[in-house]
Amino acid sequence: MGAGLSIGQVAERTGLSVHALRFYEREGLLADRVRRESNGRRVYTEDDVDWLVMCIRFRSSGMPLDTIRQYTDLVR
């Protein structure tokens, strides 16, 4: 694998499940599009991990997914 983090590594670092990470990506909650290798595997950056940690904090404060999505759109 090239430079970057696998979905498993990101799950371990954030405490989110692989399923939840895929859900966050599908729902447009990542500030940047997750890069994929030629074989289709996701490759995350440290910025992606930092953003996911922020999203976890937003969720734990009770912020709805729609609001996080709107904020993410503004950040983009």
Provide a brief overview of the structure.
By secondary structure, the protein is mainly alpha-helical. It contains four helices and two strands; from the N terminus they run ααββαα.
Describe it.
The longest helix is centred in the C-terminal third of the chain and has 15 residues, at 46-60. This protein has helices spanning 7-14, 18-26, 46-60, 65-75; strands at 35-36, 42-43. The mean pLDDT is 92. The chain is globular and about 35 Å long. The termini are far apart. Strands 1-2 form a two-stranded antiparallel sheet. The chain is mainly α and 76 residues long.
Helices, strands, pairings?
Layout: H1 7-14, H2 18-26, E1 35-36, E2 42-43, H3 46-60, H4 65-75
Q: Can you tell me the overall shape?
A: globular
Span between N and C termini?
Answer: 27 Å
Q: Describe the strand arrangement of the main beta sheet, using strand numbers.
A: 1-2
Overall average residue pLDDT: 92
* Rg from Cα: 12 Å
Low-pLDDT parts are: none
Count every helix, treating DSSP H or I runs of 4 or more residues as helices. Answer: 4
Order of helices and strands: HHEEHH
The percent of residues in helical segments reads 55-70%
Please state roughly what percent of the residues sit in beta strands, choosing from under 5%, 5-15%, 15-25%, 25-35%, 35-45% or over 45%: 5-15%
Strand element count: 2
Largest sheet: 2 strands, antiparallel
Structural class: mainly alpha
